[in-house]
From TrEMBL, chain A:
Name of protein: Transcription factor bHLH148
Low complexity: bias regions: 37-59, 206-220
GO BP term, example: regulation of DNA-templated transcription
Any Pfam family hit: IBH1_N
MF GO annotations: protein dimerization activity; transcription cis-regulatory region binding
Organism, as annotated: Rhodamnia argentea
Sequence ranges assigned to domain BHLH in this UniProt record: 142-191
Automatic annotation (TrEMBL), chain B:
Gene that produces this protein: LOC115727175
GO biological process, one term: regulation of growth
GO function term, MF aspect, one: protein dimerization activity
Organism the protein comes from: Rhodamnia argentea
Record-given protein name: Transcription factor PRE5-like
Annotated BHLH domain residues: 4-59
Keyword annotations from UniProtKB, A to Z: Coiled coil, Growth regulation, Nucleus, Transcription, Transcription regulation
């Protein structure tokens, strides 16, 4: 059926002017193809795959889903308590995970266990502070390097760091090294986009609010991902 | 000894050392602290891992601060103000 429908067309188009235009179109298409190939080759391999987080469209998707979530939470709870910042943070994380479209482990982990993550983060801060204090105390008491070597005899330094990293990337606590590395790469780019989008929103919202509130220079911004 | 340990760490049977090196170097290019430190691959893996952890922690902190700031900004916004219109246009 379909072949009988398609086949007459090229034959009918076979008169000279149409053929000429066809030829020129083909040539143009070929040239375009070559150009595209050259551009594809010019791009560094490592960047081409992970550029999705750098696109403006992705940032737009994230920003609008974050604002939507915030609007919904305001309408529903109207929570003016101390946890307002945390609510925004949770909404921001969920929006970020949603814009990853479930392609990565970290995003699925955020979407699956939002409550657990927020609890984990709450607990983590004092624990980190304690660890830092302990490390500082240890350093002041025993400034020798050999001590750390002895202490680390169970796990090599690299493996300890891999564990720490696995805990920092959602859903990667018990994953093997290659998975952690891949997820961390994607997660960092996503976080950079999150920071960019949120500081952009803060800038937009504070820009016209009142002229005295020009604190946009104070706002923490990610270093521009140049290159 | 070392081969047994690497097998226990998991995944290495399927993924070669070269691929891990590739992953680490991709990660390194994202880290502002060591991204531009010469083109040579002299940055040790442990340094890359350390910087990755630091950078993720920094980004988390930035998101925390921005969340705080945005929640303050949103709480002061009146539904009829031009800022609210900006929000509506973005949604």
């Amino acid at each position: 059926m379909s072949s009988s429908l398609i086949s007459p067309n090229p034959i009918a188009m076979g008169n000279p002017p149409a053929a000429a235009s066809d030829r020129s179109r083909e040539a143009k298409a070929r040239r375009r193809k070559k150009k595209a190939q050259a551009q594809a080759q010019a791009q560094p391999k490592a960047r081409s795959q992970s550029s999705k987080w750098k696109s403006q469209a992705q940032q737009q998707i994230f920003s609008s889903s974050l604002l939507q979530a915030l609007a919904n939470s305001r309408r529903g709870g109207g929570g003016s308590g101390g946890g307002a910042g945390r609510a925004v943070r949770e909404a921001a994380d969920r929006a970020l995970a949603a814009s990853a479209k479930g392609r990565t482990r970290w995003s699925r982990a955020i979407l699956a266990g939002r409550i657990r993550i927020s609890k984990f983060r709450k607990r983590k801060r004092p624990a980190a502070a304690v660890a830092a204090a302990a490390a500082a105390a240890g350093r002041s008491r025993k400034p020798r390097v050999s001590v750390s070597r002895l202490r680390g005899k169970g796990l090599p330094a690299v493996q300890r760091k891999v564990r720490v990293l696995g805990r920092l990337v959602p859903g990667c606590r018990k994953e093997p090294l290659p998975v952690i590395l891949e997820e961390a790469t994607d997660y960092i780019e996503a976080l950079e986009m999150q920071v960019r989008a949120m500081s952009e929103l803060a800038r937009l919202l504070s820009g016209g609010a009142s002229n005295g509130a020009g604190s946009s220079s104070n706002s923490p911004t990610a270093p521009p991902p140049s290159q | 000894m070392s081969s047994r340990r690497s097998r226990q760490s998991g995944g290495s049977s399927r993924i070669s050392d070269d691929q891990i090196i590739d992953l680490v170097s991709k990660l390194r290019q994202l880290l502002p602290e060591i991204r531009d430190s010469r083109r040579s691959d002299k940055v040790p893996a442990s340094k890359v891992l350390q910087e990755t952890c630091n950078y993720i922690k920094n980004l988390h902190k930035e998101v925390d601060d921005l969340s705080e700031r945005l929640s303050q900004l949103l709480s002061t916004i009146d539904p009829d103000s031009p800022e609210a219109a900006i929000i509506r246009s973005l949604i």
